[in-house]
Design a protein that fits this description.
Structural class of chain A: alpha+beta
Radius of gyration of chain A: 23 Å
Shape of chain A: globular
Helix content of chain A: 25-40%
Largest sheet of chain A: 5 strands, antiparallel
Distance between the termini of chain A: 33 Å
Largest interface: A-B, 77 and 77 residues
Strand content of chain A: 15-25%
Oligomer: homodimer
Strand order of the largest sheet of chain A: 5-6-10-8-9
Number of helices of chain A: 18
């Protein structure tokens, strides 16, 4: 290992390699604090050429690599194992915007560019990168691509995959896969960049990408509506799609108890509607400069016809940008407010959009029936068929005991139900180390076999992010 | 082979297997008449289960499989080799629409559904499948997916890849990869359906798919404009995108000589504009029922501001659906009219959209300078950075001699230029057998190696469409 470190230091210089515990410690625990690992060193290369040479060096020495962006992932996908022999490969130093072409609405940037900086770079040209999420101050382009990140704007613009036009990545042997050129049409065989998107660093290290931009938002209106059920919320979603088409950018739901939790948790928060309703819906409609003048009229017509169709019990439109922000603050406050209630297990799940209302009704009732005292809550991206399903422990239950005991058992039950309903046990957070056992348990065997074949072909020695997502060989179940 | 045929017959029955030359002959030559093969038999399974059992049987006997849809591909990708030992696997009998969900705007259908039937099935529910191309009366869903087909609506809705929500395919060992469930969000690892899209049957046999539908077109207006150069045409494209946003569905270009060729070749055709212009642009804007009332006013404003900005020399808007059809007939007439001029070689190429005008100017001048007497013509999908680049032989030159001699040399020169400009030697037609040698010659070595690794992992014995797209091993260049 000394030889390896010497060679790595010679390659990257002192700014590019450190074993100082003070510098590495913040990056060895995932941000939710669930996993802590150790690393032989933290490498911070400054260029694709350095990444390539480093991976070549690792391949020669058989050193495993854990790529990391902003360390804001939800599944421990960027945290090394506790063995101390893996190399933490930070892409954060590679933070340059290489080119931004406003006419073509494209930006080419390095993997370490932070999402918020990407937003600002686009906005400076009257454009927008239409993906955002809570961790935007830390999350990097490379991490967003490697996890195929979602967020609150997927309804209209898709997940990260839909925004990646080109990619550059270093493969397991150190060679550079260079497909940054943003060709709108290219049918020269397999679309290999698609394999790298969402592969959590197990097939290659993303070093740069060309991304799609859209016109900046000139006007937005946020509608807050009360509805009697998720089934009606789904009907309202279809109604809004028909009424304003692609102006619809957000459609988020939460039950009355979640709203109450936020109101009790967030200083100064006020309920948008006078009365309680079983479910609350946040609807965002936006327009660029072209469509801005007509937006309020369109939104008002959408709400009026929703009233007329009996799809809402009550509704209000944001009268100002400050009020729009306040509505979103209520939505963004759900996860922290629910967390404050006590020990809980969280599930990022999806089912086909049209089945989601019945699934939530079924799963909430089933979990609460089987485990008296626990509380099940679903909220989030109804428009994407993706909710965050939280199960909160009964009052007075010990956190560690719940999370490692009953909570784990409940999670397995939730995932069983998701699979039975044709859904996914990971809608937008990925697999990482957190969900690997469940993926092995519940994944389609043909799909798992295919994934292993691909992993074996691209990383035969298993040096890229081992222990995450998928193993080269199926787990030994003979014991 | 007798044993294999006996077993296949027992499996599929007489409707599912034939060796009758009269029945098989039409399917053994590609539709452009460039390639003719032989087959041990033509199998026409009726279900995914039959395809699975058949592939298993082929794997056991080492019989290679050539999947085929409507046999309307452009690169010989569905034609067996002349050896006579490959099995032609027609998916045409699998032509059922399994489900159509109008609210979710999704259709799940088998691989053999013909594009035109898909259009009609969607239209019956007020919806549209937004991809179309010349061969829509023959092309099947399976073929469109396997070639990631393009066409004239890619500008707005993307190629086939953007419309595939789920896929079912039979893999090289006969196992069924089943991912039809249309989850909007699913981050359980590699997106394997993306590998199958555009893989030309070399990684699996697509048996069914879930596809995205959009609202039907309620109103469309086609603008015909004359412009002084392709550079101005590109500026006009950006202008139209800004002016009408996503109402813009088509942006096609042709030079004056091509228009003249169509006018001389198409009975009753009339020039839309009074005077000749160096380049002609066809612009299509459409609206669903919601946007229909405002469409003409928006289109007129777009054209008026284009005049004001000096972006068009002249322009006219279609006054009726019949006139819109007539404008499109001129566009669709270019390829046949150019073919009627005499022997030619055609190239389906792309470069980054913003470089296309300069590339065309350069390539046309260069080809005509190097080869006095030939005529080079580019026309097509400027909005996608994709033109069809035809080089027509000098007058009196023999067809076969040109196509096999000088034409081939010119093609290589064209592809060299495309690669030098960062483009693709196949924008929308694929590789098949037609472009395989050029892909080996000009492809990025890292990408080719990756493709071979993936091919080797998914089809280690090479029984899926051998001789197409990519070989398991690099060609032997030691001789």
């Amino acid at each position: 290992m000394t030889t390896f470190l010497d060679e790595a230091l010679a390659l990257l210089g002192p700014r590019g390699l450190t074993t100082d515990p003070e510098l590495t410690a913040p990056w060895l625990t995932d941000w939710r604090g669930r996993y802590t690992g150790r690393a032989v060193a933290m490498a911070s290369p400054a260029s694709t050429a350095e990444v390539s040479a480093l991976v070549r060096l690792c391949a020669r020495h058989g050193v495993a690599i854990v790529p990391q962006g902003g360390n804001s992932g939800m599944c421990g996908g960027a945290t090394p194992d506790p063995g101390g022999s893996q190399l933490l490969l930070s892409l954060r130093r590679m933070s340059a915007v290489r080119t931004l072409d406003p006419a073509a609405r494209q930006i080419t940037c390095e993997a370490g560019v932070v999402l918020q900086n990407l937003h600002e770079a686009a906005l400076a040209h009257g454009l927008r990168f239409p993906l955002t999420l809570g961790g935007k101050g830390s999350a990097t382009v490379g991490g967003l691509i490697s996890t195929n990140a979602g967020g609150t704007q997927v309804l209209r613009h898709g997940s990260m995959r839909a925004l990646v036009l080109g990619i550059e990545a270093v493969l397991a042997d150190g060679s550079v896969f260079s497909a940054l050129a943003p060709l709108k049409k290219d049918n020269r065989g397999f679309d290999l960049k698609q394999l790298l998107i969402g592969s959590e660093g197990t097939l290659g290290v993303v070093t740069a990408a060309t991304l799609r931009l859209v016109p900046a938002v000139a006007e937005r209106i946020v509608v807050w509506a009360g509805v009697p059920s998720l089934q009606v919320a789904r009907a309202l979603l279809l109604h809004c799609e028909d009424a304003v088409g692609e102006a619809l950018e957000g459609f988020e739901v939460m039950p009355q108890p979640s709203l109450e939790a936020v109101l009790g948790h967030l200083p100064g928060a006020r309920a948008p509607l006078a009365d309680p309703h079983p479910w609350h819906v946040l609807i965002e409609v936006v327009a660029d400069a072209l469509g801005a003048p007509a937006l309020r009229e369109r939104a008002e017509a959408m709400v009026a016809s929703a009233f007329a169709a009996g799809l809402v019990e009550d509704a209000t439109l944001s009268a100002s940008e400050a009020q729009a922000e306040a509505f979103w603050a209520l939505r963004d406050g759900v996860a922290p407010a629910e967390r404050a209630k006590g020990p809980a297990v969280q599930h990022d799940i999806s089912v086909p959009v049209e089945k989601m209302p019945d699934f939530v009704d079924h799963a909430v009732a089933e979990v609460e029936r089987r485990h008296p005292g626990v509380q099940a809550i679903a909220f989030g991206h109804l428009g994407d068929g993706n909710v965050h399903f939280h199960v909160i422990a009964a009052l007075g239950v010990d956190r560690a005991g719940f999370e490692q005991g009953l909570g784990k058992a409940i999670s397995s039950e939730v995932y069983d139900m998701v699979v039975a309903w044709g859904g996914s046990i990971s809608a937008e957070h990925g697999i990482g180390q957190a969900k690997r056992a469940e993926l092995e348990r519940l994944g389609d065997p043909v799909t798992l076999a295919l994934m292993r074949q691909v992993k074996g072909a691209l990383d035969p020695r298993g040096i890229l992010n081992p222990g995450k997502l998928v193993a080269l060989a199926p787990p030994d179940t003979s014991a």
